[in-house]
């Protein structure tokens, strides 16, 4: 039997339900908090009080790394989801169940069996604050969700057993979804694979589905990357392509197969926002979502493009930057550059669009020809100029100076005409592939709570 890992905030019933579930499955139940206390010979409040949270987290990581790989039910500490190293360990070869309860029920249960405070806040406020803070991490931890607010431990355990045996996608939904995919431009090998996983006689009801949503998206490297990462991290997931001319049917199909998440690409980054329940502040300010996480009936929207742009620029905080372009990816770039405290001027072929983006992102703006008066430290190209098959550079060679850093967001080809010219001029260069790598890393963390080293992604994409 694969191991079953229960996640959730304190007071959601992990220990009580885990004990019943383990008994019904005929396997041991291990509570990681109890294991830590046993190993340390002290209670968790005593460890926190005497040695601090960092020491507790180190003990927790050790305990989790030593857990059996199968035939066990594991109950975890409420904060375990915040540590990517723990999530990497716990998610491997596991069925992950998130237990939830409404804040009033949690408050009531904690009042019966008080535990040490996590913050200096009054109990009700603490629960609200902690649930909010951990929401993305709990969403990432959830393959299945069980709300324990108004149920007995026996009934909750029975519900989990049902999910393990039958999954969450009824047979007619699997068939309808497969018919939908079969009518999209999926290539034959992927269509056959999806057919086996959705409707084949040996399909595993616990397999979770993810994919890239776009039109077109046949060129996307995300299926290759994510499916290889699923193997690397032993996740029972499959990543496919949701390729259709409108985002509505894509979202319907994703919900039909209880998808775990979507990477959203051109032309749906704006349109998808209307289909979501909650949108992260950064994505809302940028005006685009490129990552959707589904958990416990809620669809969350995020933007990881800006993080993918910010990461390679970590050493450039405070620079004077020129941003070329004022479209979708330029909005994410403007957000990243201003977040790094840069003085940003947006130049665009259509100056009014530069002005509109500058006004909402706190930047300066100008017309394309203004470049010659700027002498920036950093140039970011957010136009498609130089993208295959185009062979132009957005700037003349004589506009590039060796003191400049040139970042081209275009990544096909890997070395664009702008990057080639910048290297010739002696500039520091950053290629668009870096954005893809870092945004995908952030996406994987939002999907599963696991932090993949850049090197692993680079190796897969090489
Ligand atoms: P978009 O919303 O269509 O915006 C395109 C921008 O480029 C607009 O400001 C447009 O100016 C300008 N532009 C287009 N053609 C031009 C030309 N011939 N001369 C001067 N300006 C021109 O596109 P997007 O979604 O922002 O994507 C832009 C590029 O970013 C894509 O082509 C892609 O290569 C790259 N990208 C990279 C990544 C990555 O992971 N590395 C992710 C996303 C996108 P007007 O306002 O005047 O039309």
Describe this structure in words.
The protein has 3 domains: 3-166, Rossmann fold; 171-303, Leucine Dehydrogenase, chain A, domain 1 (Rossmann fold, 3-Layer(aba) Sandwich), CATH 3.40.50; 311-436, NAD(P)-binding Rossmann-like Domain (Rossmann fold, 3-Layer(aba) Sandwich), CATH 3.40.50.720. It is globular. Strand 12 (320-324), helix 14 (328-339) and strand 13 (343-348) form a beta-alpha-beta unit. It contains 18 helices and 17 strands. 43% of the residues are buried. Helix 1 packs across helix 7. It is α/β, with parallel strands linked by helices. The model has no long low-confidence stretch (mean pLDDT 96). It has helices at 14-25, 32-40, 44-65, 84-91, 103-112, 123-141, 153-166, 171-182, 188-199, 222-232, 247-256, 281-286, 305-310, 328-339, 351-361, 417-424, 432-448, 454-461, and strands at residues 3-7, 29-31, 73-75, 94-100, 144-147, 208-214, 237-243, 261-264, 278-279, 291-295, 298-302, 320-324, 343-348, 364-367, 378-381, 405-408, 428-430. It has a 6-stranded mixed beta sheet with strand order 7-6-8-10-11-9. Bound molecules: NADP nicotinamide-adenine-dinucleotide phosphate. NADP nicotinamide-adenine-dinucleotide phosphate binds at residues 266, 305, 325-330, 348-350, 353, 382-385, 387, 409-411, 432, 435-436, 439.
Concise structural overview:
The chain folds into 3 domains: about 160 residues, Rossmann fold (3-Layer(aba) Sandwich); about 130 residues, Rossmann fold; about 130 residues, Rossmann fold (3-Layer(aba) Sandwich). It is built from 18 helices and 17 strands. The protein is about 45% helix and about 15% strand.
């Amino acid at each position: 039997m694969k191991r079953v890992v229960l996640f959730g905030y304190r007071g959601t019933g992990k220990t009580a339900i885990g004990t019943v579930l383990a008994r019904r499955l005929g396997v041991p139940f291990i509570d990681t908090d109890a294991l830590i206390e046993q190993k340390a010979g002290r209670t968790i409040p005593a460890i926190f009080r005497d040695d601090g949270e960092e020491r507790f987290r180190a003990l927790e990581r050790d305990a989790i790394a030593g857990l059996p790989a199968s035939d066990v039910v594991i109950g975890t500490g409420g904060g375990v989801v915040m540590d990517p190293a723990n999530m990497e360990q716990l998610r491997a070869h596991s069925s992950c169940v998130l237990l939830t309860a409404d804040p009033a029920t949690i408050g009531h249960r904690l009042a019966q069996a008080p535990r040490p405070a996590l913050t200096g806040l009054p109990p009700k406020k603490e629960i609200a604050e902690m649930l909010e803070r951990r929401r993305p991490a709990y969403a990432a931890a959830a393959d299945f969700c069980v709300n324990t607010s108004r149920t007995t431990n026996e009934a909750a355990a029975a519900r989990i057993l049902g999910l393990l045996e039958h999954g969450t996608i009824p047979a007619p939904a699997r068939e309808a979804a497969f018919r939908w995919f079969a009518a999209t431009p999926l290539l034959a090998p992927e269509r056959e694979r999806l057919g086996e996983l959705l409707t084949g006689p040996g399909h595993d009801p616990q397999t979770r589905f993810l994919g890239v949503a776009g039109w077109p998206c046949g060129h996307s490297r995300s299926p290759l990357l994510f499916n290889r990462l699923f193997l690397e991290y032993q996740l029972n997931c499959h990543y496919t392509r949701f390729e259709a001319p409108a985002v509505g049917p894509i979202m319907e199909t994703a919900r039909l197969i209880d998808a775990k998440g979507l990477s959203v690409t051109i032309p749906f980054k704006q349109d998808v926002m209307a289909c979501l329940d909650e949108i992260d502040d950064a994505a809302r300010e940028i005006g685009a979502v490129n990552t959707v996480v589904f958990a416990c009936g809620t669809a969350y929207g995020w933007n990881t493009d800006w993080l993918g742009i910010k990461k390679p620029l970590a050493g450039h905080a405070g620079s004077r930057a020129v941003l070329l372009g004022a479209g979708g990816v330029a909005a994410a770039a403007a957000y990243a550059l201003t977040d790094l405290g840069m003085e940003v001027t947006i130049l665009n072929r259509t100056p009014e669009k530069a002005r509109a983006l500058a006004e909402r992102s706190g930047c300066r703006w100008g017309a394309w020809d203004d470049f010659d008066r700027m002498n920036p430290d950093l140039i970011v190209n957010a136009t498609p100029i130089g993208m295959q098959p185009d062979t132009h550079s957005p700037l003349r060679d004589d506009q590039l100076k060796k003191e400049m850093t040139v970042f081209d967001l275009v990544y096909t080809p890997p070395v664009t005409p702008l990057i080639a010219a910048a290297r010739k001029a002696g500039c520091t260069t950053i290629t668009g592939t870096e954005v893809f790598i870092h945004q995908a890393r952030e996406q994987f963390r939002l999907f599963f709570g696991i932090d993949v080293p850049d090197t692993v992604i680079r190796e897969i994409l090489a």
